[in-house]
Amino acid sequence: MTPTQTNIVLSAESLSKVYGEGPLRVEALKPKSFTARAGEVVAILGPSGSGKSTLLTILGLINPPTTGSLRIGPTQVIENGRAVANLDQQRRQQIGFVFQRSNLIPFLNAEENVRLALELDDVPPAQSRTRARTILESLGLGKRLHALPSRLSGGEAQRVAIARALIHKPAIVLADEPTASLDSHRGRQVMELFREAAHAQGAAVLVVTHDHRTLDLVDRILEMEDGVLTEKAYAAPGETSHA
Amino acid sequence: MMDLAVRDIRHDLGRFVLTAVGLGMLLSVVLAMTGIYNGMVVDATVVPDSLGADLWVVQRDSQGPFAESSRVPQRLAERLRAIPGVARTRSYVAFNVQQTTPEGVTRRFMAAGLSWPDDHGDMLPLAQGRALRAPHYELVADASLNLPLGSQFKIGRDAYSVVGVTRGMVSSSGDPMLFVSIADALKIQNDLANEAMRIETEARIGRVKRSSFGRDPASLERAAQSQLPALAPPPVSAVLLDLEPGQDVESVRERLSHWPDITVYTTDEQRALLVRGVIDRARRQIGLFRSLLVIISAIVMGLIVYTMTLDKMHSLALLKLLGARRIVILRLIIEEALLLGLLSFVVALLIGEFMFDLFPRRVLVGDADRLALALVVAGISVAAGVVGLRKALSADPNQVLAS
Fold it and tell me: pLDDT tens digits for B239-255?
């Protein structure tokens, strides 16, 4: 393993989430510790209502955990269930998001949607434009820079969303069913993109998915069931794990 | 940082422009109300201002001649001329005339008498033609009466030549003004039909017969031949005093205060009587209507900005998920509200520029009014933006994950 592969970019300790109190108490995420390394693609599987979305919102710093600590990249973000860093800033700098639908901003064109991730963190427009064009061209969207989301195909829009998630070189990329609305071929293309990006940028990619067709492209599989997260299988980066 | 507000507007430019045009039309009504309010004040005071007298002498305890009726004898002008410091006296009479043409068109105006030969109407703001040069059968009319220069216009039994045209000379009720010599004005005002004259003559002979003069055949003969006036000389509405240069207005006024048959006003007091009295209710009504329109505009704009915000709640939630600072969202919402306000304001100005001259009454919009409207629109925009912002800040990033 290279030093990069051994670098832990996500470290969760005893993360849990409880909703409600008394008889209405629901333990959506039971205490669990896990890590993700730079360059890894980790799939999170589980049926609906198993707690995948809860885990994603905690890792995405949208909802706080009830207990536990979280470190993203070099920064301790959550300590004993409380935020100890500027969460907005952490989301801008350390996290990339990809969703089932592309979730692009409809009034920005492809290039602007990608630039946005940089400019929200005060990167100058000239620099953000250059970087956005470079990444979009690398994803085969060089001729679609000025197309509005409504003019992009599903696959194109998803590639723009991936570009937006990666352009600021985040420590982790959280992807929620990114291949669900794509056919098998495009779904594999997207997962391959994630693999390449994870290796190239040293980011950990956590993919919540139901799509078993692409699991051969992930490094690890975590399974959620009734709020319990378990390691399903593990393969070292570069090898293929089959669930 | 790219300008998100401009990009959002650009994305649906037609809708934004249409919204702004609609709002601009509403604001133009606010501007029109302001202009009508100003115009009403100017209309009310344009006649006393144009006549430019130092003092107005009217009937005792009357607030005439504009605010209420005033009748003073014609001879008063001669008495006043004898007062030290008085350079010139001018009798003034004004009355409303309404005519219906054979075509059924109703024409209403206020006729005013100029004190010929001292006053030819040289102080009138002439747009065309000249002031009066003859003591009879010439008139100067306001352009809003649509009487062509050189045309003949019949009032009462006589035809008058239109020798001059003024612009903006209207009465306090907005009717166009028409100026003739005071002799002609009194003739128009007191003209009697032949039958009325005959009846009055019979009445006069009857009065003579009942008097001690009735035994005198010569008196009866004179009455029958109308050598005695049928009526006393008609009164005028007021006498205007022009003082000698450097003469103190108050000292002349003080001297006249002892006269038991008159009341004296300065032009400023006449103006105040008009503004506080004659047009006060209309002025307050328009003021209240204008305030109401401003409130309605604020509510409409608040709702528009709120709706615009609702339309992009998903984008706002996404921005928050991507870690956008509050200032980014604040700028997006407030800037859009301000741009909407700015465009609406420009539309209102353009409507005012091209439409207000077509209004039947004077609409006067000054720079101060435009500035005031700009400040009101800016205030409304910010308030509407705050309404939208409250909603925008409630956008939940979880919505993005749930979608």
Answer: 999 999 988 999 999 98
